[in-house]
Amino acid sequence: MDRLKYIAIIAVAMSFQQISFAQKNTATTELNEIDKKLNESVYISTNSNSYVTGESLFYQLFCINKATNETSKYSKVAYLQLIDKNKTTILTHKLFLENGTASSAFFIPTTLETGNYKLIGYTNWMLNKEASEYCNIDIYILNPYKDKPLNTISQKETAPTESVTNTNISFNLKNKTYKNRDLAELQINTGSDEFAKGNYLLSVRKADGFVAQKKTNFAELAANNTSNNTETPIKNPNFLLPELRGEIISGKIKSNSAETKNKKVALSIVGKNYVLKLAKTDNEGNFVFNLEKPNPSSNVIVQILEDNKQDYTIEMDKPKNSNLSNLSFPEFQFNSEFKQNISERLISTQIENAYYNIKKDSTLASTDTIPFYNKLSKEYKLDAFTRFPTMEETITEVVNGVYFSKEKNNYAIHVYDYDPNYESALPALIVVDGLIIEDLSELFQYSPKNIYKVNVVKGIYYYGAKSFNGVVSFTTKNGDYETKLKGSFIIRPELLRPQPKKEYFKPDYTTTKNERIPDFRHQLLWIPNVNLNDANSKIQFYTSDVSGKFEITLEGFSAAGKPVFIKEIITVKEDVSN
C-alpha cells in the first residue's frame, strides 16, 4: 500500500475520534471499508507449548497484514491474554508495538490448575470482530503440586527432534556438541536483503516438552489464515477505535447540576519520566487521551481542571471483554518420557527460582525523557544553589522570572513575560512530577529539600485545550510527589499499563563471579527482534548445568512477509572430568 493511501486511512480513522465515542451516525458499511484497509491479524510465538508451574513463558507478538504477512503500519498497541479451559481470563498484557512486533514474558504461578490454556492476541480494532479473528495458541500447564495423578494421562510416542531448514536463511554453528557451561556461538546467514531485514525471534531451549503435539509455526498459521480468509463484518456502530497513534485512555465526566461539554480534563502519569495530557470533553462529556509513548507506571491521576470541579464526577471507560464464546480446547497427548521430563524440569525450576534475585531479567529504563515543553525552558537544579528551608524563599531567591503572591491562605505563582511591560491575566501552568497543581497551598507546604530541579517557560503557552501564562515545572528527587487533593473530580484509576521492555538474563562465565551459583536453565537464550543486518555478527550464549538436546529456533517473517521457521539441534554433554 502506497504512502498516500496510508495517510488517507489514518485521516479517516482519526476523524472518527473527533465525532464522539458513540459514533451513532457512522454507517457500518464505512467501518467495514476501513477494516478492509487495516486488515490486521496477530501471530504469537512462545518458547514452548508445555510448561510446569514455576517456569516463565516467553512470547513474541507480531501484528501483520493478513493479505501480505507484512508487519502492520497501523495499530501501535496490541493485547495478549492467558485463558483457562473455563474461558476465564488469567492475565492480560498491553504491549506497545515497534515495527509491528512486541515481546514480553510472565511467570506461571503455582495457583494455576493443571490443564489446557490458550494465549489470545488481538488489537483494539480486532475486538470489534468475532473471536475467530483473534490469534489463539494452545499451551498446556502442569502443576505438579496439585493432587492430580499423572499416571491417568494418556501417552503417545513422538518422533525424535529433527532439524528444520530453509533455503533463504540458515544457522552457521561453530559446534553442535558442547559441555556444561561452554560458550556456544552461531551466525545466521541470509540469502538476500529481504530475509536480512525481516522480523524474527531467536530461542535456545532444552527439547524436553512433555506434550506430544508439536508447536505450530508461522508458516502453518499463515496457511491456515489463508484457507480461512473470510471476513467477519462489523455490525455494531458503537465500535472501538483503532489505536493508531498509541495507547487510548478514555472516560466520561458527569454532573447533576453543571454542563459537561467543553470541559478540561488532565491525565498525569506521575514520576520521573512523567506523562501529562490535556483533553476537552465532547457534547456528551466524553474525553479521550492518546499516549504516543509507552509508560508502564501505574501512578495515574485524572482530574478536572475547572473552577467548579466539585460539581463533577469522573468515570473511566472499562476495557471491552474479548469474545471467548467460540473457543475450543483440544485434548493434549503426552510423550512417552513425560514423567522424567516433568521431574527434571521441576527440580531445575525450584533451583532457578531459589536464585531468582541473581538471575532475574532487567527492566530497561525509558530513554524518552523529553518533557512536554521540550527545550523551551530555563532550568534550575537546586543543588547548584544555596538551599532554602521554604518554597517561598526558594522561588524568590533561586528561580528567576517567577514570583508568588498570597491572599489569605491562597497562593499563586506568576511568570514574568518576555515583555516586562506586559502581564497576562491567564494563570501559569504549575506541574509537579507531571501532576497539574491548581491549589498551591500544599505545594508551598512541601519541603524544597525534596525538589531536584525547577523548569520555567515564559510567555503564553498553549497545551491541549487550554492556555497558560508560562509554565513552572517542579521535579522531585524520587519522582514520588503525592497530592492531598481528594474528591470525585480527581481519581486514581486502576488502568492496564503497557509491559516494560526487558533485557533477558544471560550468565557470563568469563570470570569466576558466578561459578559457584547453580545453573539449571532450560531456556539458554531468548532474543526477540533479532537484528540480522550485519552478516558478520555473531551470537553467543553459555550452556548450563543441564545436559541433553537443545533446540535453536528462529521464527518470524521476512521483510516481504514470507513466514520463516528454522531449527537446529545441539547437544550438551556432562563434563565427566570434573
- What characteristic shape results from the CA principal axes? globular
**What share of the residues does DSSP label as strand, in percent?**
35-45%
Number of helices: 8
The total number of structural domains is 2
> What summary fits the major beta sheet?
5 strands, mixed
Q: Largest beta sheet: what is the strand line-up?
A: 2-8-7-4-5
| C-alpha termini separation | 60 Å
What is the C-alpha radius of gyration, as a whole number of Å? 28 Å
Quick check: average pLDDT? 87
SS-derived structural category: mainly beta
Number of strands: 34
Bin the helical content: 10-25%
Q: Can you tell me the residue ranges where pLDDT is under 50 for at least 5 consecutive residues?
A: 13-26
Tell me the layout of helices and strands.
Layout: H1 3-17, H2 28-38, E1 40-46, E2 50-52, E3 56-65, E4 77-84, E5 89-96, E6 101-107, E7 115-123, E8 135-142, E9 155-156, E10 169-173, E11 177-179, E12 183-190, H3 193-196, E13 199-206, H4 218-227, E14 247-254, E15 264-269, E16 275-280, E17 286-291, E18 300-304, E19 313-316, E20 334-335, H5 338-354, H6 356-359, E21 362-363, E22 378-381, H7 391-397, E23 402-407, E24 410-415, E25 429-432, E26 435-436, H8 441-444, E27 451-463, E28 466-476, E29 490-491, E30 502-503, E31 523-528, E32 539-542, E33 548-557, E34 563-573
Parallel strand pairs: 2-8, 9-20, 11-34, 25-28
Antiparallel strand pairs: 1-3, 3-6, 4-5, 4-7, 7-8, 10-12, 12-32, 13-31, 13-33, 14-17, 14-19, 15-16, 15-18, 18-29, 21-30, 22-27, 23-24, 25-26, 27-28, 33-34
